[in-house]
Amino acid sequence: MQSMADISQAKRTLAGRTALVTGSTSGIGLGIARSLAAKGADVVLNGFGDAQEIEILRANLATEFGVTVGYSGTDMSEPDAIAAMFEEHFGKSEARLDILVNNAGVQHVAPIDTFPPTKWDLIIAINLSAAFHTMRLAIPLMRRGGFGRIVNIASAHGLVASPFKSAYVAAKHGLLGLTKTAALETAEEPITCNAICPGYVFTPLVEHQIEDQARAHGIPREAVIRDILLAQQPNKRFATVEEIGATTAFLCSVEAASITGVALPVDGGWTAH
Ligand code: NAD
Fold this sequence. Notes:
273 residues
C-alpha cells in the first residue's frame, strides 16, 4: 500500500523542473505559478507590484510547496530587459529552463478610431512580442536540458473578436500563430508549445475591464458582467485561476508529450458558438 508520503511525492510530477511564468505577481499567472510549484517545480516569478508584498508572496510560495522561488521585475515590453532577465536567471551553464509560461498581458478597451497608438504598441509588445523574445531565448535552453514545455496564455479573443479590443484581439490571434510555428519548429524534439484560450476568469484585469466597459457603454457594472462579459460565456460563470493553473500543469506533464500546436479553449463553451 502507498503511504501518504508516497502519495504526496507522486503528485510532485514536476519535481526537478524549473519554470518561468511571466506576469505571475497577480491573477492567472500567480494561479499558474502555484499549480506548478504544487507539482514540485522551481519557479521564477515575474511581474509588477509592491516590492515587499512580492517578497512575501515569493517566500510563502517557496515555504508552502518546498520549492525554490525566484523573482524578476523585468518589464516584458522591453526586449533588452527580457534578455537581461534570461542572463541573470538562466545564464549559467548548469541552469535549467524546462517550462515557459507566457502569461503577462494588459488590456485597453476603446473603438479603433479613438484607440491611443501608444496603447496599441504596448499591448502588442507585452501580449505578443514578449512571447517571441522569451521563446527565442528559452528554446535553446530546453534543447540543452532535453525537455521543454511552452504554454502561451492567449484568450478566447485569440479565436474570436469582440468590439473595442482591437489591439488585444490582434495580439492574441498573433500569439496563436506564434504558438503553432514554434510547435512545428520543435515537433521532433522533446519540446511542446501550446496555447490556452481562457474565457473570462475573475482577476484584477477583468475588474478593470468591468470599469472600462461600464464607462464605454454608460451602464452599471452588474449589467456589464451579465449582459456583456458573460453574455458570450454559455456556462455563465467566471473560470477560476486554479482551473487555468491545472490546465497549464497538465500541458507541462510528461503525459502531454503528443499535444503540441493546439489552442485549448477553457471558456465555458464561448467558442463553441
Ligand atoms: P492581471 O492584471 O491580474 O495580471 C497581469 C500580470 O501581468 C500581473 O502580474 C502584472 O504585474 C503583469 N504585467 C503587466 N504588465 C507587465 C509588464 N509590462 N511586464 C511584466 N509583467 C507585467 O491579469 P490576468 O487577468 O491574470 O491576465 C493574465 C493573462 O491571461 C493575460 O495575458 C490575459 O490577457 C490573459 N487572459 C485573461 C482573462 C481573464 O478573464 N482574466 C481571459 C483570457 C485571457
